[in-house]
Design brief:
Blueprint: H1 5-21, H2 39-49, H3 65-78, H4 88-94, H5 98-113, E1 122-127, E2 132-137, E3 140-150, E4 159-168, E5 172-173, H6 176-189, H7 193-196, E6 199-202, E7 208-209, E8 225-228, E9 239-242, E10 251-252, E11 266-268, E12 272-274, H8 277-284, H9 295-304, E13 308-321, E14 325-327, E15 333-335
Parallel strand pairs: 1-13, 3-11, 10-12
Antiparallel strand pairs: 1-2, 2-3, 3-12, 4-9, 4-13, 5-8, 6-7, 6-8, 9-10, 14-15
Helix pairs in contact: 1-5
Length: 351
C-alpha cells in the first residue's frame, strides 16, 4: 500500500462499475488448459478481456500462448500460483461476478478513505486478506513475507501503530480469552498440560503458584497471569515485533512454521505470524531506526537463549489494512477473498 492506493482503488471501482453497467462478464464454468478448444475457450477469452485489455482476439476458439499468458496475468492479480491452467481456485475466481468485484473495490476504498496513516520513508503494511507483510521504502515494496492472520472467529484488526522494539526470545503472556476458552478446559482434562507447555501461573502479586491449586472450572481462573517461558515451543517463537496498540496484537515468529506452506493462512487468534521474521527484524534493525543488527547477529542472540529487548530510537510506522480489492500504482487491479465477510456489511476488521 502506498499514499496513492486510495485514489487508484477508487478509480478502479468506477471502472468496474462501468463493467457492471455493461452487463458484467460471462461465466467460464468448466476447467480448461493448453490444448483445449471450442466455445468454452472463446468464452474464457471474453471473460479475461473484460478486465485485461491487452488480450487481443476474443473470439478465437483455440488455445494459444497469448491465452496462457493472459491466464497467468489473471492468476498473478488473484494471488494464485501462475500455472496457466484454468481449474480449482482459478476457475472459482474467474466466475466471481463483476458485481462482487465492484463491491470489493468500493468497500476497500471506503475503508482506506478513513485511514490517516503517516506514510514516510519507511513503513510496514499488513494486508490481512492477502496474508502478506510488506516493508516499504520510498514508496517501493522492498520485501514481502507470507503471513498467518486471524481466523474467521478471531479477526486480525485494522490497526495503525508504531514499531518501538524487537523482542528476542520473548515470553508469552496468555490472553484472558485463551485462558477461558482453551487453557481452562484443557486443565480440567489434563492437569499436567501447563507444566508440559512450560507455562507458569502467577497470582496478583506476581508470585508463581502451583497450577493444580487453581479451580479451572471457576470464572476466577482468568484472574491469574499465565506466562509461557521463552525458548523452544514458545507460541511466539524467537521474535516478537512490539507495536503497542489498543487491540494488544503484534507480529511474531511461530514454532509451527510448516503452516506457511498452506494456501489458506487464516489460522491465528488475531496476531500476525511472519515467515522469515528474522529477516524482517534485521530490516527494522538495519540502523535507519537506531540499533543495527544483522540477521547473523540476531540468530546468534536467539541461539544464546537470552531474552533481550532491542528498542528503536526512531519508530517505524505499521498499518494493518483489510483490502480485498485494490489497484497498485501501475493501475493493475488485485483481488483477494473476503474471508471475514466485511464487504457484505461494510464493516471493519476490528468488529
Amino acid at each position: 500500500m502506498q499514499p496513492q492506493t486510495f485514489f487508484t482503488t477508487s478509480n478502479a471501482s468506477e471502472r468496474y462499475a462501468r463493467i457492471v453497467d455493461l452487463g458484467g462478464w460471462p461465466t467460464v464454468g468448466v476447467p480448461l488448459k493448453p490444448g483445449s478448444k471450442g466455445p468454452a475457450v472463446a468464452t474464457l477469452r471474453r471473460r479475461l478481456a473484460a478486465e485485461d485489455d491487452t488480450l487481443g482476439n476474443t473470439t478465437k476458439p483455440t488455445w494459444d500462448p497469448e491465452l496462457t499468458a493472459a491466464v497467468k496475468r489473471f492468476q498473478f492479480r488473484m494471488g494464485l500460483k501462475q500455472t496457466g491452467v484454468v481449474a480449482g481456485a482459478t476457475l472459482k475466481a474467474l466466475d466471481v461476478p463483476a458485481t462482487v468485484r465492484f463491491r470489493q473495490l468500493a468497500s476497500s476504498a471506503q475503508r482506506l478513505a478513513g485511514l490517516d496513516f503517516p506514510f514516510g520513508d519507511r513503513y510496514i503494511v499488513v494486508n490481512i486478506p492477502s496474508t502478506a507483510v510488506d516493508t516499504v521504502e520510498n514508496d517501493r515494496v522492498v520485501r514481502r513475507y507470507a503471513a498467518i492472520v486471524g481466523d474467521p472467529e478471531h479477526h486480525s484488526p485494522e490497526v495503525q501503530a508504531k514499531v518501538v522494539a524487537v523482542n528476542i526470545n520473548p515470553t508469552w503472556t496468555v490472553p484472558a480469552s485463551i485462558i477461558k476458552n482453551e487453557i481452562a478446559p484443557h486443565m480440567l482434562r489434563d492437569p499436567s498440560y501447563l507444566t508440559r507447555q512450560r507455562i507458569r501461573v502467577l497470582n496478583n502479586k506476581g508470585e508463581e503458584i502451583n497450577p493444580r491449586s487453581v479451580d479451572w472450572s471457576s470464572e476466577r481462573a482468568v484472574n491469574y497471569t499465565l506466562r509461557q517461558d521463552s525458548g523452544a515451543g514458545n507460541s511466539l517463537g524467537s521474535i516478537r515485533i512490539s507495536m503497542p496498540n489498543p487491540h494488544s496484537v503484534y507480529m511474531h515468529d511461530t514454532p509451527s512454521r510448516n503452516l506457511f506452506a498452506n494456501d489458506y493462512r487464516f489460522l491465528s487468534h488475531g496476531c500476525v505470524r511472519v515467515q522469515g521474521v528474522v529477516d524482517l527484524a534485521a530490516w527494522i534493525l538495519d540502523g535507519a531506526s537506531g540499533p543495527q543488527l544483522s540477521k547473523e547477529e540476531i540468530n546468534a542472540k536467539i541461539a544464546s537463549g537470552e531474552r533481550e529487548e532491542v528498542k528503536l530510537s526512531r519508530i517505524v510506522p505499521v498499518v494493518w489494512v483489510y483490502m480485498t480489492g485494490w489497484a497498485s500504482a501501475d493501475g493493475i487491479v488485485h483481488f483477494r477473498d473476503d474471508v471475514y465477510h466485511l464487504d457484505e456489511v461494510g464493516g471493519d476488521a476490528g468488529q
